[in-house]
Write a structure and sequence with these properties.
Helices cover about 60% and strands about 5% of the residues.
Length: about 110
């Protein structure tokens, strides 16, 4: 049965309501949007302002320790991106050229 046929069958059975309230496929989220806002955002936002320095790995460990919620870094990164946030890294460089050198060193150290 094609998607069109399934939708038509649902429409005929219950109209628009049947289409809108169809059960979603897939696994349930480990962390709802509301839980993310209540439990995770306070770790990186203080008094309405994003903290200047925070690491994804540290947030992930804290979520696991405090709330027993196990998320991968990739999943956590997606949650933050949806909120327009990205991890802030510590940088001891005093000027832009030093920061560029530090960045290049960090990138090449992974190879």
């Amino acid at each position: 049965m094609t998607t069109n046929h399934r939708w038509l069958k649902l429409w005929n059975a219950g109209g628009l309501e049947a289409l809108l309230h169809k059960r979603k496929a897939g696994r349930k989220r480990k962390l709802s949007r509301e839980d993310f806002d209540a439990k995770v955002l306070p770790m990186v936002i203080q008094d309405g302002i994003e903290k200047s320095e925070w690491r994804l790995e540290e947030v992930r460990r804290e979520i696991t320790a405090k709330h027993n919620i196990h998320l991968s870094n990739a999943t956590l990164r997606r949650y933050f991106r949806r909120r327009g946030l990205s991890p802030r890294r510590l940088c001891k460089a005093s000027n832009e050229s030093e920061m560029g050198h530090a960045l290049a060193s960090a990138i090449w150290s992974h190879f």
